[in-house]
Amino acid sequence: MASRLTNEATETAPDLVPATGRHRTMFFPRRRTTPRTARNFVAATLTEWGETNRFDDMRLCTSELVTNAVLHGALVGRLVLVRVDSLDDQLRIEVHDAGDSAPTQRVPEDSAVDGRGLLIVAATADSWGVKERTGPGKCVWAAFDRNESGAAPTQPRDPGPQGDTT
């Protein structure tokens, strides 16, 4: 049975799952406007944290991953969870949905109007992947390395001895 997307608004609620570093999560309903709303959530979070070096890349990947979740992963009546993590070595966007099938990167025909989302994520993020979840569904993530983005780590680290130590 084909599912239909709607524009019906529902309440969103933060998720309180503990993690290392800073994190923020939010649930979104399965509807047409969810990619834009999730992108705005990620943008507001990154701005609040001062993590704006790869701001556009992270917003773009959020949009692509959430669009995939809404179109292919989230079941009717289920929510999409978006998580933003600021860890010591990377920034990470995760999109969780209740769908069982893992997304696959494909090369669409030149005239195709869709099918490029994961190509965009692969070209934009430093790494991406899919991981299983406890319970139904999966998590698709995109990571942005701090050494590539120039972003400062959340905690200062002692790099140890520098140069010739003999």
What does this structure look like?
With 166 residues, the chain is an alpha+beta fold. It has four helices and five strands, in the order βααββαββα. The chain has a five-stranded antiparallel β-sheet with strand order 1-2-3-5-4. The termini are far apart.
Short recap of the structure:
The protein has 166 residues and is of the alpha+beta class.
Write the layout of secondary structure elements.
Blueprint: E1 22-29, H1 34-49, H2 55-73, E2 79-86, E3 90-97, H3 117-124, E4 127-132, E5 138-145, H4 146-149
Antiparallel strand pairs: 1-2, 2-3, 3-5, 4-5
Order of helices and strands: EHHEEHEEH
Provide the low-confidence segments as ranges: 1-19, 149-166
Q: What is the end-to-end distance?
A: 70 Å
What is the count of helical runs? 4
| Widest sheet, order of strands | 1-2-3-5-4
Largest sheet: 5 strands, antiparallel
Radius of gyration: 17 Å
Number of strands: 5
Strand content: 15-25%
What is the residue-averaged pLDDT? Answer: 77
Helix content: 25-40%
Q: What structural class do helix, strand and pairing data support?
A: alpha+beta
Q: What is the 3D shape?
A: globular
Properties at a glance:
28% helix; 4 helices; single chain; disordered N terminus; alpha+beta; 5-stranded antiparallel β-sheet; 166 residues
